[in-house]
Design goal:
Keywords: Membrane, Transmembrane, Transmembrane helix. The protein is of the alpha+beta class. The protein is built from 5 helices and 10 strands, in the order ααββββαβααβββββ. A hairpin with a 2-residue loop joins β1 (about 195-200) and β2.
């Protein structure tokens, strides 16, 4: 068998664990050792034989118990210290957690208020957004209407431009026509100048008419009824002569009060002439409808004037007589006329 003191690894480990190296000997009871003394062990002796392993070493019961109790006490102390440290740490962490909880509650309350505020603001913004959308839709509709109006206006403008071009062309044509008409008018004026007799630019009469003050007289020698004579004067842009002044039945007063008397004496004829006075609706009236009260004959009929005596007489309107036409004097067609 191997020696009990052989140096095997197990023996060295146990010796290091117990704090000493011993040799195997018979155990002594614990009551042999005084209580105030710790048992002393002889110094370790180890004998190493080549090729011989040491058998397992077992500590003595008293030494191992003391070391075991010491380790257990140390362990309990460490556990107590650890428990105290853990308790203090727990209290510290608990306080920190409580403080953190209060901070979190305050933060949570603040965040709730901020969230409510944000929700309110978001709702307001949503309403504003809806209002903006409505306004945008209205603006879009208005823009579309304005675009339609603009398009219609553009089309109308194009039509107006086409009309303007057409009008310009028509105006040019009218201008050419006006120039041509002015040329023709000048030519006609030049042609008609010999057909007017003028005492001044404002008092002219056609050739063959007699100018007396501001009236022109024409004696038609063709015999016609009163109606036919009036129609003939109308065709000459005139009417049967009208006596606007007081007329006496005596010839010596006729020249003084009737301007047309010179027209009668100019012809030096003994014939009678129709004038523009006839009986209508119980009154003597001129061709313009004005009444004449200085002629006292009664009954239907028309009035003639004797060319020699200048006496007004009633005559049957169907009788055929020459006529005396009268028209107002007029300006010369050429305003620049200076041949009077």
């Amino acid at each position: 068998m191997p020696s009990p003191t052989s140096g095997t690894p197990s023996l060295r480990y146990l010796q290091k664990l117990c704090g000493t190296e011993t040799t195997m000997r018979a155990p002594s009871p614990l009551w042999d050792v005084p209580s105030h003394e710790s048992p002393t062990l002889p110094p370790p002796q180890s004998v190493n034989f080549p090729g011989v392993h040491e058998p397992p070493f077992h500590c003595l019961p008293a030494g191992c118990a003391r070391y075991f109790l010491l380790g257990l006490l140390l362990t309990c102390l460490l556990l107590g210290v650890a428990a105290i440290c853990l308790g203090m740490r727990y209290l510290q962490v608990s306080r920190q957690l409580q403080q953190m909880s209060r901070v979190l509650e305050a933060t949570n309350s603040t965040l709730r208020q901020q969230l409510r505020l944000k929700i309110t603001q978001l709702g307001q913004r949503e309403e504003d957004l809806q209002g903006s959308r409505k306004e945008l839709a209205q603006s879009k509709e208005t823009l579309q209407m304005e675009q339609k109006i603009c398009q219609t206006t553009r089309e109308e403008l194009q039509a107006c431009q086409l009309d303007r071009k057409t009008t310009d062309e028509a105006l040019k044509n009218k201008e050419v026509q006006r120039i041509n008409l002015e040329r023709r008018l000048r030519s006609m004026q030049d042609t008609l100048k010999p057909f007017f007799t003028c005492s001044s630019p404002d008092t002219c009469c056609p050739v063959g008419w007699i100018l007396n003050e501001r009236s022109c007289f024409y004696i038609s020698v063709d015999e016609r009824s009163w109606e036919e004579s009036q129609s003939h004067c109308k065709s000459l842009s005139s009417n049967l002569a009208k006596m606007t002044d007081i007329l006496y039945s005596y010839g010596r007063y006729f020249h003084a009060y009737y301007p047309g008397s010179k027209a009668l004496t100019h012809r030096n004829s003994l014939e009678s002439y129709w004038i523009g006075l006839r009986y209508q609706n119980n009154f003597w009236k001129w061709t313009d409808g004005t009444r004449y009260t200085a002629f006292f004959a009664r009954g239907p009929g028309c009035v003639k004037v004797e060319s020699k005596t200048h006496h007004m007489e009633k005559e049957d309107c169907h009788a055929s007589l020459p006529s005396l036409c009268e028209m107002a004097a007029f300006k010369h067609p050429d305003e620049d006329y200076a041949g009077y």
